[in-house]
Amino acid sequence: MEFLAGNIESADNPFEKTVWDSLCTIFEPYEGILGYKIPSLGFKENEIPSFIVRSKSFGILILDLVTEKVIEFDEDNEFWKTTDEEYIYSRDLSLNIYSKELENSLKKNPTLFNIRTEQWNDDIVISKILMFADNTDEEIAELESSNGNPLVNSRWLLDDLSTELNQIISSGDISLSESTIDLIDSVLEGSNIFSKVIRKKVVAAPSNMNEFIKKSLDYTFKLDKTQRQVALQIPSGPQRIRGLAGTGKTVILCMKAAIAHKTLTDYGIDHKILFVFNTQSMYNQVKAAITEYYFNIAKAMPNWNNLHVFHAWGGSNKPGVYYNTANAAGARVLNFMNVKGSENPLDAVYSDLINTAKDKIVPYYDMVLIDEAQDFSPAFFETIFYLTKPVDSDPTHRKIIWAYDEFQSLTELKIAQPEELFGKRSNGIPNMPNSVLEGSYKGNIDKDFVLPNSYRNPRINLLVAHGLALGLYSKDSKVPMDDRGDWIARGYQVNSPATQKFVEGDFVHVERPEKYSKNVLERLLRDADSPEAKLVDFKKFDRVGTELTEVVSKIENLINVQKVEPEEIIVIDLDKKNSQRNFEYIRQQLDIKNIKAITPGYIESTDSFKEPGFVTLSTAFRAKGNEANVVFIINTQRVINDLTARMRNAIFVSITRSRGWCYLSGNGRGTDELEEEITQIVKDSPAFKFIFPNEAQIQRKLVIIQSTKNVEKADKEIDALLSDDTFRALLIEKIAQNPELVKDIAGLNKTEQNGD
Q1: CATH code for the domain defined by 2-188
Q2: Closest CA relative to residue 293, chosen from 253, 238, 234
Q3: What's the pLDDT tens digit per position in 357-392?
Q4: At 46, is the pLDDT very low, low, confident or very high (cuts 50, 70, 90)?
Q5: Do residues 398 and 383 touch, judged by C-beta distance below 8 A?
Q6: Euclidean distance between CA atoms 8 and 20, whole angstroms
Q7: Cβ-based neighbours of 345, under 8 Å, separated by 6 or more
Q8: Which residues does the UniProt record annotate as the domain UvrD-like helicase C-terminal (predicted)?
Q9: Do 544 and 667 meet the contact criterion of CB atoms below 8 Å apart?
Q10: pLDDT digits (tens, 9 = 90+) for 459-486
Q11: Domain spanning 225-451, CATH class
């Protein structure tokens, strides 16, 4: 049984906790889900039944606990009088209303219910039980007889709980199908609103790429077990969520924000919640997801005065965390022009805020949810720490929930720990020690979650993205993870070696199981023996002009022949220096073919992305946080030519934007090597097989990758020195006079001679 304790700890009702513990013990051996006060179905917190169980063998069981002692039913049995002389609405009637609402929600799905025959298509049974915590059976019977209105639902006493439940379990004689269970669960958790249900009839035998995409997207979105555990439960303190791009982190955070907002609103608690992110184009996506889920569970719109959705920066015309915080603290407010020369402008403004005004930052938010946490520096996290109210007397106990995209950067193969992120007090003690993520909160709510399932990318796309990012099949750019646990956390199984840590010379064989790849497009294409089954394709060209012309031609074919919507096509250029010129050419040529395009950040606003009817032209950085059915990546030769490995990060981000096809292309020097890497990755898929490289090689590359210095500029300057005979001779003389450097070069040559 899967247990969802929700906010049972914050509710602080001893009767409910006692019953919860008993229910967990009784149901533990059985398959299903047991939840506390979920789903809400638009009801207020005090109207939601206490517990709900979903089982394959006995269906849905709703249990409501009456914790007050009831001393009188009114004449209509509509209101009950309690020992404190208060009248409460009949829990018997509210349980019935809730049950009917749940039944109606399930009946809206034609797969579950036949509206013509008014019959369930599967054996769906909904049972209701009312439990009295402080009344005897005789007292309830007397109250019923006093007005002649008996209870509608079955009643139990707590003493009878175990006996009665075991009878229900043992008498269960239905067997719900897995598809029915998926649909029921999606309604119970409210995730059905995120389903990709195509309103037009899906073609049984797709004939073009658009039809294959539609068929792959026509499914009921249901949280997997890990997602459900993290999305539907609100922790009482810090929590970290990790997962690859496309594992559902943004949706999970949006659900948590909506659930927390509704719960606090229902309890009448004045509160402030912040949802913060880095990619500006995500603003509409996040706000829409929160609104949709909140309306589904509350039947009302969110109160945006209490729930803030902000970009990390902001400005005079647009609210944002930095701008609002600096203003409130009376600190100087820097804009982009003030820090545009910095290696990381966002870090620069937050570092300035921390250095000049951290003592003036007043805790304002009760809860903060951080998406795209991998994009933020420690100065940002420290600012968030000071902005968040302590939950209790422990200053480290703050309700901050941050979600990382694993592997968005080679600089973060080892994830940063709380002590590195949230700053230190004046005495040097960390604001948030690493121990805050150890173990779980009451109700078995984990403090640190890893999401292994990828919903966005087909498996081959993810393998090519990882293989290129880590340089696993490159000649001299291998930067593989050396820890078994790091591979497992990213959804791989390690076949060899058997050790926890990998060392030079180890034969590494890791595999990505199909069960962790939830995108079904690859399977649909394979089963149909489609000519479009090649989801990752690489082409090389002599020059960039030919490459761009081919991209334009392919886009025209996708739209006119394969019927792909223009907004489901993204073109990403890895050549940032020339991207504006390249995009102008592509846009002009598409316009001639009557195909419209947008270039966010160049002509259109940075918030513009995937506008209906428009192809999107973007850099890798601006594409982060977005996705599309078809992604083109041009000028990929820069991956091979770039010794800083920044381009390996960029191509990983770019490939992982694709829900379907990914077309890579390059021109000139480096394309042969890149083609060889991709070919080998595809050949070995769904696994990686390589010899673990020399540790010194890895560390040398990591020093370059992790440097905050302008290594691209230094790389160009070194190239300039080597191209001049005089400077080249001088450089050799300098090297010759440095024994340690000569030793390092000799060691490098020795490694290469050994065939690595």
Answers
A1: 3.40.1350
A2: 253
A3: 999 999 999 999 999 998 899 999 999 999 999 998
A4: confident
A5: no
A6: 9
A7: 336, 339
A8: 615-664
A9: yes
A10: 999 999 999 999 999 987 888 889 998 8
A11: alpha beta
